[in-house]
Amino acid sequence: MCTIHMRVQCPDRFSELLVDDVEYTELTIESIVGMALLEVFNAVAVENVTVHPSPEDSDEDEWRW
């Protein structure tokens, strides 16, 4: 069994996910990462996907992925 920890930061210029629904965004990320890992592993369990605003943002409504 392998355990993989990932931390991803995306610039907002490439963000295509809606920030109004954080739960939906987290589920979308979980699904995409899970499908990508299934290309390499026979079984995958994705846990604890969370989306946070970048601490560099001065405006709390502005999110980075």
What does this structure look like?
The radius of gyration is 13 Å and the shape is elongated. Helix content is 26%, strand content 0%. It is mostly helical and 65 residues long. It has one domain. The N and C termini lie far apart (28 Å). The model has no long low-confidence stretch (mean pLDDT 76).
The average pLDDT is: 76
Poorly predicted runs: none
Write down how many β-strands occur, each being a DSSP E stretch of 2 or more residues. 0
Estimate what percentage of residues fall within beta strands.
under 5%
Radius of gyration: 13 Å
The termini sit apart by: 28 Å
SS summary, helix count? 1
Largest sheet: none
Assembly status: single chain
Q: Tell the overall outline.
A: elongated
Helical content class: 25-40%
The ordered H/E elements are H
Counting structural domains, the number is: 1
- Derived from helix and strand composition plus strand pairing, the structural class reads mainly alpha
